[in-house]
Amino acid sequence: MKRAIITVVGKDTVGIIAKVCTYLAGNDVNILDISQTIVQDYFNMMMIVDTSRMSKQFGDMADELAALGQEIGVAVRCQKEEIFDMMHRL
Amino acid sequence: MINLHEVTQTNKMITEENLDVRTITLGISLLDCIDSDLGKLKEKIYRKIYESAKDLVGTGEQISREFGIPIVNKRISVTPIALIGGAACRTKEDFASIAAALDSVAREVGVNFIGGYSALVSKGMSPAEELLIRSIPLALSTTERVCSSVNLGSTRTGINMDAVRLMGEIIRETAECTKENDSLGCAKLVVFCNAPDDNPFMAGAFHGVTEADKVVNVGVSGPGVVKTALEEIRGESFEVLCETIKRTAFQVTRVGQLVAREASRRLKVPFGIVDLSLAPTPAIGDSVADILCEMGLEYAGAPGTTAALALLNDQVKKGGVMASSYVGGLSGAFIPVSEDQGMIDAVKAGALTLEKLEAMTCVCSVGLDMIAIPGDTGASTISGIIADEMAIGMVNQKTTAVRIIPVIGKGVGDIVEFGGLLGYAPVMPVNQFSCDAFIGRGGRIPAPIHSFKN
Fold first, then answer.
1. Can you tell me the ipTM of this complex?
2. Using a CB-CB distance cutoff of 8 angstroms, which residues of chain B are in contact with residue A88?
């Protein structure tokens, strides 16, 4: 399994999760876990996904998700899980 | 499983606190390029560097995109050119033409600096080494990306005072040759005591002769992350302060370890070291001086500064050592003046002097770094400043360095713009009393008593 973390931060609006999920489904990326909070109208979501069946280059997906985020006015980042494991796990 | 809080913390460090990997530096040995024919030598050097480094920038950018961590610089270090060019170069111009070849291959592969226009003369100078040193002003004024360094002393050998005297003159000459650009050439020239073979940071990076054919070294950064962590614990005891720095340094270094491992795997080049350095930039919130202020000093340079810096440096190492499988290079806090907004502010406020900076270099990783001094400062005074700094390194068994810029045409209080990561600096006053007769003595200072460990 090749896990990645997608984060979405921005002002809450209709259809954020739908847009991101549609993109992921279209690229054969499986969602393993979703957690989210809304603090003072600010939407903060994290998804753990499996990219092992994806045919795209990882960097291209990260760029496309960032562009998708811009369209709907939120910041979307997609990062390989290792960076978080390295920083927060011994 | 990673949770939302941890992900948010990491991304806040990256997006708001300037966490980045400062450099991936590819060390390349040029020993197999040596040839007595200068033309052939340059061709071999160009080819070897190009073949070794053509994927470096692309790989760095790919890693950066996949992990969402900025990798600010991709750079190259090579074997000291005095060793490589010795058989082929007869004149200063011959050596400078090698610098031109390095410059053009650096541009071709897209790295912003290439280090290793260097000579290691801690005990004595061979004719080739002296010729390379004398060619430095020409080389640095006719190239854009080449960095030069000279090792003038070590704990094991003492200090080569002939070379110290020569470097005072060379620094002045380099300043003159680049006076149209605020003597920028001197920002690409550093002298060392105990120079490390595996330093990834410029201007002092070179690929030591003890290294493998190629090696990937990574320098991390993150003063802003440490500063923000300390904001949370204002007024707490030194124990809490130290633990917080250590924990933060661990996290910062883990990112460096990850990037180093990935770069090594993708470039198929062995992983050398992670350099655990807190390297500031002129950007707001990316300052080592700000960390010292956050600890409780009004400005860097106030009484207590040396103690605060000693503590910071030690905790960065303690936190970083466990985070990486190999640690090396300079490893510690950098205190360049022009590259750190907090240091610039301290100089402007009159809180920070050259003498205090010298004291600070006793307890941190580098030395007198990126300091602008008046353009009329004499060569022997520069040599005196260098000799003092080399003595600190020699006696304390640590690396020390001097990168000072006598800015031709400018005096105390004037502002000098170097641009980009090199920043800007107010010209600082220098002690006006003479050391001519001291510097004028020939020879070398013997190794200190504690170097005899066999």
1. 0.91
2. 2, 6, 9-10, 251
